[in-house]
Every structure is written in C-alpha cells, then in structure tokens.
Amino acid sequence: MVRDIHHSQLATPAEGPLMHATVPTDTARRSARARHEPQRLVNEVPAREANNKRGNQANQSDTEEEEDDSASEFDSSSDSGESDVSDAVEGFTEKKANTPKRAASRKQPKAAKKEAQPSKPRMTATKRGQKGQRTIAAADMEDSTDDSLEQAEGLYAEILDPNSSLESSVNDWMTSYREDKTAALWSLVNLIIHSCGCPSSISKEAFADEESVVDILAELQRELQENAYQDYPIVSKAKPFKGFRKNLMQFWSRLIEKAQHDVVLDDQFLDQLLSWLVAMSSSLFRPFRHTATAISFAITGQLCAIAQQLAEEREIISKQKQADAKKRGRGKSGESNDRAGELQSKTEKIETYLTEFFEGCRDVEAIIRSECVKELGKWMARNPTRYLESSYLSYLGRSLNDKTSMVRLETLRSLFALYKNEDLIAGMRSFTERNKDRFIEMALQEVDISVRVCAIQIIDQLAKHGSFDAEDSDAVLHLIFSDNDRIRTAAAQVMATIFEEDLLEPKLSECRTALNSQADSDRDNADVAVLNKDWVAMKCIAENLVRLDKRAKQSNNPDVNMTASDESDEGFWEPVDASEERGRLSKATQALWPFLDPVRQWEVMANLLVEDHSDTASQVEGQSSVSSRRPPASYYCLSDVEESALLEILIVSVQEAVEFGEADPSISINRSKPRTEIQKLEAQNKISRVLVDIIPQLLTKYGHDTPKLTETFALVHNLNLDIYLDLRQTEAYEALLDQLRRLYLRHNSTTFLHAAAYIMKRLTEYGNLAEATQTMISQLQEQIVAQFAADVLNIELSTADLSTDSIALISAALVRIQQLMAFVNINTTLEKANDGEGIIKQVELVAERSLLSMAEEDNLAATAIDILFRYLSWTCQQFSVTVTNGDHIDSSVVDGLKAKRDNFLRCVTNLATNEVPVTDHVRLAAFRAIGDCFWLFTGEIFDSADSSLRALRTRCPSSLQAACTELIDSQIATFIDKHRVAIYGQQDEAEDCVEGLAKSNQIPAAERYQLQQTAAVLARPIMVGVFDIEHSSTILIHYGMFGSEYDEIARLLVEGIKDAIGHTGGKNGHLSVSKVYLESMEKVLCFSFQLSIGGTQLIERTVRLSKMLGASVKTHAAEHPDEANSKLWIDLLRDGFDYILRRVPDLQRQYQEGEDYEALEKNLKFFKVLTAFLQTSGLTPRDVYAVAKYLDRILAHREVKVDADAKEWEHYLNFVKNLSKTLTKAGIVYEPENESTKQRLQGKSKAKPKRKRAEEEVEDDNVSVASFQSLSAPKQQRK
C-alpha cells in the first residue's frame, strides 16, 4: 500500500537534511496565490543541485579493515614485484569472499527486511556531482523497481501498464471530477508525485491545505533522497518504464482535449494544477523539476491546439457575421454575436493560462532546456498567432548560443521545422536577418557534427524561400569538400538549391545578351549559332567546383581533406598519392549526384569533353567576357583545370549511374529503393554503348596530357566488354588494345603506367576477349624488355659515366618494366631476352651503380631494386603453385630459388649497409626490399614437412633490423630539424613550446607524404613479423607530431602488432612477445611525454597515443586472460608510478622554496597519460585493485605528500577517481589510504587555485629518454 503523509506530520524546510536545497521562500509565497498572479513555469535555478551524502559506514569500515589486512608492507628491494601483486590480489579475493550476499536479505518479508536494515540507509551513491559511492548491487535496484511497480495504484498504475487504455482512464477521471472535484484533482497531483519516482502519496487533508505545498514537496524530496538512487520514470532506461513517458504525455494531452469545453474553463482545475506545477518546477530537485516541466509542456501544447481551434472558429464566425450583415441587414445576427462572445471569452481564459504556464526556458539542466526549445517550436507551429513573436523567438535566438550542443541542436531542429512551413517564413523575417550570420557561423565552426548539419539544412531551407541571397548561401558551399559525409551531403543540397537561379541563370543571361547583340549585328547572316544550354551548365559546374576548392584550401577548415598535392602548381588533379587526391572531387561529386540534375548528365559531359575548343580559346583570348563578337562556343570553353575537373565529374557520374542502376539522368534518384542486378546490368550496357565510342576519342585527345590520360582509364572500369561482342565490334576492341599499347610505350609517368598496367590486367579477366588481350600484353612485354636491352647495349654499367639522356632512357625503360611486373608475370621474357642471356644481370648492375655516389641516379637504382624483388616474387609465386598442386619438386628447382634469393639479399644488403657512398633514398629502397624478401620466405609453404622447403625459410638478422631502425630514426630527426617551428611551435627563453601540434599542417604536404612512406619502410616488416616488435618505438614515439598521414602509419602498426601477439604460438610465446611490447610501450609513452612536456596541446597527443596502445592491450587481454599476462599490464602502470613519483619529493621541495613552480605540475601530468591507458586497456577489477593498492603503498614508501586539493595534483586525483569508478562498478568500495585524497573524494575539501608562477623560471633540463628507469633517476644522477 502507498503510505499517506498527513500535512501535520510534515517537517518544515529548516528541519530537512538539505536546508540549502529546499524550494526558495518566494516560491512558497507565490504558490499560495498562484491562481491570481501569472507565474513562469521554469525558473532560473542555481547551477548545482543539492547533494546528499549517503553511505553505509558499517560496510565501509569493514572494507577498510579488510584492505588493511590485505596490504602487505612495501618491499623496495623487490625487482619483479610479484609479491606486491599477489598480496593485492589476495586482498581483493578475500574482500569478495567476505562481501555479504544481499540475495538472502531480498528474500525476507518486507517487515523483517526493514528490521534487518542498519540504522543508516545502504545507499551511498548519489546523482551527478555527488561524492558518495554505489555499493548497492544491480539486482537490488531491480528489486526496488519491482517493489515500486507492485505498489503502484490509481492513475499511475494505469499509465504504467502498457496494456491499459488511456482513453478509458481519461473518461473515468472526467466522471470522477464531475462527482468530486477535490478528490479527482488530488488523484492528479498524486499522479504527478508518483511520476517523479516518489513511492509516497499525499493525503487529502494535506492536499486541501494550499499553504503547505512547499513543505509537502520538501518532505517528499527528503524521502526520495534517503532511498537508493534510481532514475526517475520519465528518464529511466528500465524495462517497466520503457513507454511510460509517452503514455504520460498522451494522458495529459487527451485529458486537456477531452476537458476543453467545461473542465479546463472552470475556476479550479488549471488553477490548482498550476500551483503544484509551479512549485515543483521551481524545485532544486531535478526529478520534481523535470517531471513537472514535461507535464506542463504537454498541457501547454494541447492548450495551444485549443487556442488555434478557437481562433479558426472565431474567423469563421466573423465571416458569417459579415455574410449575414449583407443578406439580412444589421441587427439580425444576434446568434452569431453570442457565439463570437463565447469564443472570445474562452480564448481570453486559455490565453491567460498559456501566459502563466510559460515565461522562459532557463534551467541549469541541458535536457530541460532542450525540451523547452523543442516544445516552444511546436507551439509556434500550432499557434503562430500567439507564439511566433519576437518575445518568444528571442528564446530560440539565445538558445543558439547555449553552452551545450544538445540544446543548440534542438533549437536548430525547431527552427528547421518552422522554416519548412512557407506560411511562417514572413513572420520570422526579422529573426532570420538577426541570426543568419549565426547560422553561417554554426555551419562552419561548430564542434558537434549534428549541429553543423542542421545549420546547413536551415540555410538550404532559407535559400529555397529566398531569405538567403546567393552571397550568404555561397559561404557554406565549400563544405562540399568536407571529410564528413553528412556535412558534404548537406552542403550539396544547398548547392543544388541555388545552382539554377544564382549560379547558372546569370551565366545564361550573359550569354543570351551577347548572342542577341551578335545576331543583331549579323542580321544578314543566317548562320547564327544557337547556344547549347547543357554545355553552359557543365562549364558552370566545373568552374564553381574549382572556385570552391580553392576557397576550401584557403579556409583552413579541419574538415577539408588536404593531401600531398594541394600545393602543386598543376592543380589538385596531379596528386602524389593519386587515389587520395581523386577522392576529394569524387566525394564532392558523389554528394551532388542525387540532387543536382546536370551532374547526372554524363553523356552531355562526355560530348563536351570530346570537343576540341583550342581554336575557340585562341579566338577569345584577350577579349572581354561580355564582348559581342565572341563565338558561342566561348561560353562553354573549359580552362585546363576546369576540363580536368569535368573529366573527374564524368567518371564519378558514370560510376554512380552504374552502381545505382539508372543511366537516364532525367529520372529522379531515390537511394532508399536500390535497383535489381538486372536493372544495373541494363544501365551499364546503355552506358557502355556510348563509352565504346567516347573512350578512344578521349585517349586520342589526351594522348600527350598524362594526368587527363590517367583519369580517362577509370572509364574503362565501367565498360561491359561483352558489348563489343553484342555490337560485333571486336575490331574496335583490338584497336583499343593497340591504342593502350602505344600509349604505354610513349609515356614514362609512374602514375600513368601503373593505371595502364592495371587496366590491362583487368582486361585479361574477360574470358571471351582474353586471348586478344593476352596477345597484346605479350607483344608489349617483349617490346619494353627489348627497349631496355637496347638502351644499355655497349655500356659498361659498373663503371660508365652515363649522360643525362642515357639516364632518362634507361629510367623510362625500367619504369615500364617495373609497373607491368606489378600485375603481369614477365619473368620468362626477362630470362630469354638479349639472345637468351636475359637482362637480370644488367638490372643488378644498374642497382649497384648507387655505390658510385651519383645522386642523379637514385631513382634509377631504386627502380632496379624493385624489379629485382618482383622478379623474385613471381618466381616464388610459380613455386607456390607447384607446391599447392602437389606436383613433384626437383631439388634443382629448390636450389635455384635459394640461389636467386641469396643473390638478391647479397645485392640489396650491400646497398643498405653501405652508409657512405649510398644515398639514404637508395638505402630506404634496399631496406624496403629486404623486409619484403624476408616476409616472402616466411610463408606457409616453407613450413612444409619437406626438409628442402623448410631450408628456404629464413629470418632477418638483428644487425639488419638495427641498421634499418637507425636509418629511419635519422630520417625522422632530419625532418624534425627542418620543420621544428611547425612541429613544436615558436620557442623562446620563457616557454619550451607553444601551440606545437596546431601548426603541423604548415609542413608541405608532399614532405609529410614522403615521411609517411619512410616510416612505412620500418612499420611494414614489424607488422608482418619480420622485424622485432621492440623497433616499433622509433615510429610510435612521434605519434601526433607530423599530421594524419604519419598517424595512420602508427595506427596500422599498433593493429599489426596486436595481431602478431595474438597469432604467436604457445603460452610462453605470446607472453614473451607481450613483454617486449610492454617494454616498448613504456619507452614510447615516456619519450613522447618528454617531447610533449612543454605544452598542453602536445600533452594531448601523448594521451591519444596512450588510448591507442591501451585499446590494443584491451583486445589482447580479452584473448589471453591468464594471470601471467595480466601481470605484464599491471607492471606498465606500476613502472609509470615509479617514473612519476621518484622525482616528486625533490620537485615538491623546489616548489615550496619557489625555485620552480612548473616542474611539479609537468611531472604529475603523466597521470593523465596513465588515466587514458587505464580507461581503454580493459583491465579486470582484480587487476585494477592490485594497481590501486600498489599506488597507495608506493606513495607511502616514497613519502610523497599528496595535496589532492592543489591544482598540480588534479591529474593524480582523476586517475584515482577512475580506479574507484572501475571498482565500484564491480561492487567493490575502494578508499585511498592517503588522507588528503580520501577527503577530496568524499567532498570534504575543495580544489585550491593554482599557485602563480615566479617571475624567474628555472630552466627545464631537456633529457633524452630511453626508459622509465633511466628517466626516473634523480636529476644529479642523470647529469
């Protein structure tokens, strides 16, 4: 049964445990006269809700005794630390064994259960911002919820029941109200109380006393806070409350709708409800305030609908009165006048309540503020006459600058819904003018992606209605190049909206004016060309995308993907990394394709690109853009960059049409309804019939333009080659093959040759035409090999001094061989060339020419090394096929493969280890080949039972690994020296580094890309298990310093190491690898921290690195949850404590003496790094408990004086909070042994302001870090 509380038994606010948390006294005075004076529903409340300190001291004291028993004396002489871990683990096990089981207590009868409870409640956890801990188990909370559901009765039980009829509940309440108003209202107030999560009810006597509203709420609040905390029903995620909020809001809406004709308009119903809702919405207790606010919103929303209906009826009556006056004359419309007066009276009463229910949307809780603006938007849509005014719109305007993104997002959503209604646009014109700059700012600079997307959508809506001019809308169009898909899509919709009217029409108008003028002057000339509007549209698209791309690069927007070629003089179509750079415009075109019709007109683009406008361009050169004598073609004549852009748009448009299965651009696109495979094939066939004629023409046109020629090859991917057979055009296919062959022999661009070789490989996969393709490839490989043999004929490669022309010829021949070998096995041709002698020996001699120290031949030598490796790779591939098929392998074949491998390793090792004559560029190529070669000979085929095959398996020597690591380290050091300011920021005597990471994008993109390739030389062998994991630290310590390209290598490296650990055979195997990994992680984190110690932004990169490493540990720990493995992860945190705390006593002395205020804070920041590792590592509660107890002991052993209230110790305190949080979730109460930390966690002390810096700072010593142990030594020892 629900217990009744009589008003005579209620405590006054002063008697409650939260004197400062009771409802303000002015609210008590207001509630008594609520029916007479308008009050606002949501008042401005203090920034922090009341906190109630709740705890089970008996359980806590037992826990403290157990922890004291389990904590062994700190042994500083222990090297391994095994005893410390075992002691901590034993303490953890003992504590869990002694933890009282609450299942038995839950089975007791309620009366006995009540007697068995301690004098103080068990609940020690409070909501946000409170200092207690939760010792109640999840099952206890479920039982508490079940108990409250069993006790539910009345309206609350009906709403809680998903099977009950809300309509019946409303009808029953209406009947009861007509019989006894007070009793019916009393049931409604109890419904509100129960909806706040309060199990108690108020008595009828207490309800009748209007002066005691505040006192009743204070007592109910006190009772709620004494019980175990649960989410109140309208926000609870518990299963019984899944649909509670929806049902509750529907009940109030239906009730107001049902009662609108009589109950709502009497003098008691809304007046009495208002007195309770105002008092509850003014409460400092969030369940009361939030629930009352939500109910008030439901009531107000329905009142708005009623007010709008009354307004419409009044308008109808007014029209009837006017009609009657015309028909019958004045004085014969008495019935209409009576009805109009009745409606006016109802309207005034409803308006009065609407004023009382809402006067603002101010609250410290973001969820309440967001609901305010959401409901206000609905009211504006329902009743624009009242709410679509500046006084209410100002709330939305202020909410656009709310500190919480959730509120800003809900505000934009409300505005978006309003702007979609054309009838409301005019009434919001002044609001739009005041805030359109804010919309643009949010679209460009908001942190939250959803907020940005919604802001762009609002701009799109305003552009559709003409409220945003072209200049305003154009401010966000460059976001079409954003890396985020949602932002790109939203910006594409804006461009599609304004394209026709603001971008294309002005250009067409200019063209028409010029052509009309030309026609007038040439009236006698009947051959006046007609303007091609479609081509002008294509010109307009390309022109604007090029313009927007330049703006995107100049905006320094972090969303814009800047790649290696952004600074190239040839435009962004000439990438160093072609696939990445093509992605920029491709992504923008993909975003535009569903919305902008001209982008889908692939055939129009193709026809325009085939046209040769060189003559037209020469005619208009030097003429004004509005010259009346310009030829019509000049208005769609493309510049070089525009033509490249349009070619890329064509490729994407064709790809999208094939993928979606719609070749007709006039048909609207609906991505939610994907096409069948048959429809996609039909679309591809239709496109292929056109491309069969277009592709040869484009290849001919761009025959000497390598970038455009490379892009054109992408169109071949979308061809259905069966169309050549269907159209009986096999000769056209053979002509295409011959054209490809001739182009391959003409060009020497690596990018073009790679694309062409890939296309040739793809063409061989079509069975019906494969024979013709293979014939062409055989002819091609013979030609390029013969070309190289002719170029080196009669040249003594080991000693000759090559001319520039000879180097160019040999280089071009080798690049053609290299790129074809990437996809085609031409080993036979290489071995039989040169009259059967082969050319492999000549290629080796070209590679060894790097020993002559000729820098101009570096690329030549690197290409030769790659050809030698590919030759060996194809030999291994043939060997692998033989082994897989089970064919007999002659010993001579094995010996021949071993000889080729050893000869290759001898050659490249000689180049890699010769530091003086060989340049770093060649050494990097050699080390890359070495790593790939050793990886090649660690495959599964070399694990065969055949001893001859096992003999081929080999391992990279440690000396080669060390040499490669040393080279990569020197390359990175050179890069840092060259770009020190961009990496670390401006340096002076006062600061170590400022804004270090913020300027990494100032480094030329091409150099960042080259560094990425350099790091990959070391990362790849580590990832595949060829190099030892310990070498990974060379790359990982610089994570976050050089931009996203380098960070991607580091991320892939960590992923590869994680997989390598997981696939290491045997328990001892994976433990040994894990140990090496942990040692490397210690070195990486420590060195990264030392590099970052000068600035906050640089510290963040170490934190990100720690999270990434911690995540790899988490995955590995889940796969190998054994005790020995867990100890490795614990050791990393323990070593981290040693690293930090060894120096703390000396630094504290310096701090107190005023020698150095910064050193202590910088040193303690490492706790932030350890916190990131702890949060992502996924250590078990057992491990975390061991870590926590070790931290307590080492603090005591080092005699560290912790001042948890000081700003310098904030990161330590946050680390301890995370320890406590993890243990609390496991049902363990952890209290630090350090008294200052314990007091701070319990809320008995507050943070102190940070101590000011001295006028003269002590210069920090820049120490090169090798490990935790070496860096943890005192400063005097290190010096």
From TrEMBL:
Every SCD domain range: 357-442
One cellular component (GO) term of this entry: cohesin complex
Extent of Acidic residues compositional bias: 62-72
Matches recorded under Gene3D superfamilies: Leucine-rich Repeat Variant
PANTHER family the record matches: LD34181P-RELATED (PTHR11199:SF0), STROMAL ANTIGEN (PTHR11199)
One Pfam family of this chain: HEAT_SCC3-SA
Highest classification ranks of the organism: Eukaryota, Fungi, Fungi incertae sedis, Mucoromycota, Mucoromycotina
GO molecular function list: chromatin binding
Biased composition (Polar residues): 1264-1279
Name recorded for this polypeptide: SCD domain-containing protein
Domain of life where this protein originates: Eukaryota
Residue span of region Disordered: 1-135, 321-343, 1234-1279
Composition bias, Basic residues: 1241-1252
InterPro entries: ARM-like (IPR011989), ARM-type_fold (IPR016024), Cohesin_Scc3/SA (IPR039662), HEAT_SCC3-SA (IPR056396), SCD (IPR020839), STAG (IPR013721)
A GO biological process held by the record: sister chromatid cohesion
Organism this protein belongs to: Bifiguratus adelaidae
